[in-house]
Design brief:
Blueprint: E1 14-17, H1 21-31, E2 37-40, H2 55-60, E3 70-71, E4 77-78, E5 108-110, E6 113-115, H3 122-135, E7 138-139, H4 164-175, E8 185-186, H5 191-196, E9 201-207, E10 211-217, H6 225-230, H7 248-258, E11 262-267, E12 273-280, E13 289-293
Parallel strand pairs: 1-2
Antiparallel strand pairs: 3-4, 5-6, 7-8, 9-10, 9-13, 10-12, 11-12
Bound molecules: flavin-adenine dinucleotide.
Flavin-adenine dinucleotide binds at residues 17-23, 40-43, 59, 81-82, 84-85, 88-90, 92-97.
């Protein structure tokens, strides 16, 4: 990072090197103990740009991969798939957060040799898998994956719903006696609601006669009329905290309008805001989906 966080003479109880999932998780856990924790990261923040979303740029062109050369056992050079940024490889990863299989902890024979038995077992790690899955907002369903080990707790969030075509494929595979399952995915589907509001959030899809409305309902402080009228304007920001560009909701409105819809915000009772968009002429919805989202706070490891 450009600016050193520490000055000479500062004392830290723990110094964690690297802010990837390993270091980040360790630092987040240690911070709860009240210890002074310093997280050292060699990389800068990943610049936000269009190419972040281009899988060709990220995966094929290796746009963000460290420009380094490593050498394998036979001195053959290779470019390691490392990303030196705050967040490490998790800035570009797929967020499919599987557990290791219980068998992986034993000795495993590979074509090139034997991976030795671990000194700990799947059962030893199981409670920590639960903590990590809750920390990383993993959406999924334990018990669906026939190869996975047992879990003492379910994920905090249900699986991310398949797109209609993927659901068709899944149904077809099931009919053939196979066992397709939802990937356990660590995603935050309600980032803005989480940032600006506390408590439970609800992601709701309502079906009308020939239209749907998709909205996120939070239990935060709400927003006065003027703010609700302006929140879809470009560059408008509810909180001038220096983060965010005020473009997210403007884009929501633009895309909704492009498809003949509207975006709107409603105050819900005394507290909370209901922000969403409606699209007319949408057919094929046969249910009202409703996902209750509790707020996984960093203090909650249960
Ligand atoms: C394209 C891609 C997709 C992936 N998809 C998935 C997936 O879907 N599911 C999954 O489970 N895993 C996935 N992974 C793997 C996953 O990202 C890694 O297993 C995980 O990031 C490893 O975490 P880590 O903290 O050990 O290391 P890293 O994420 O590599 O983090 C290490 C950090 O340490 C910093 N650092 C290194 N040296 C120093 C130093 N000397 N001083 C200070 N800082 C230093 C680095 O800059 C980096 O930020 C993917 C990886 C890639 C590249």
């Amino acid at each position: 990072m450009n600016e050193p966080a520490a000055t000479q003479g500062d004392h830290y109880d723990v110094i964690v090197v690297g802010s990837g999932p390993g270091g980040g998780t360790t630092a987040a856990t240690l911070a709860k103990t009240g210890k002074r924790v310093l997280l050292l990261e060699r990389g800068d923040f990943l610049p936000r740009e269009r190419a972040n979303w281009e899988s060709k740029e990220v995966f094929s062109e290796n746009r963000y991969v460290a420009n380094e050369t490593f050498y394998d056992l036979h001195d053959k050079p290779f470019r390691p798939e490392l990303h030196y940024f705050v967040g490490g490889n998790s800035k570009v990863y797929g967020a499919a957060l599987f557990r290791l299989n219980p068998k992986d902890f034993g000795a495993v024979r590979h074509p090139d040799g034997i991976s030795p038995e671990w000194p700990i077992s799947y059962d030893d790690l199981e409670p920590y898998y639960v903590q990590a899955e809750h920390l990383y907002w993993v959406h999924g369903k334990h018990g669906e994956d026939p190869f996975a080990g047992p879990s003492s707790r379910d994920y905090k969030f249900p699986p991310v719903k398949h797109e209609p075509r993927i659901q068709e494929l899944s149904d077809g595979l099931e009919k053939q006696g196979l066992h397709p399952f939802h990937l356990p995915i660590g995603v935050n589907l309600v980032q803005n609601a989480d940032k600006h509001a506390g408590g439970a959030r609800t992601l709701r899809v309502e079906r009308g006669q020939d239209a749907i409305r998709v909205s996120v309902i939070d239990a935060g402080p709400g927003l006065e009329r003027e703010g609700r009228d302006r929140m879809f304007d470009r560059y408008w920001r509810g909180v001038a905290d220096g983060t965010g560009k005020g473009l997210g909701l403007a884009l929501v409105r633009a895309v909704a309008e492009l498809h003949g819809g509207v975006a709107d915000a409603r105050q819900v009772s005394a507290h909370g805001l209901d922000v969403g968009f409606s699209l007319a002429g949408v057919r094929g919805w046969n249910e009202t989906a409703r996902e209750e989202l509790s707020s996984p706070s960093t203090n909650d490891n249960n």
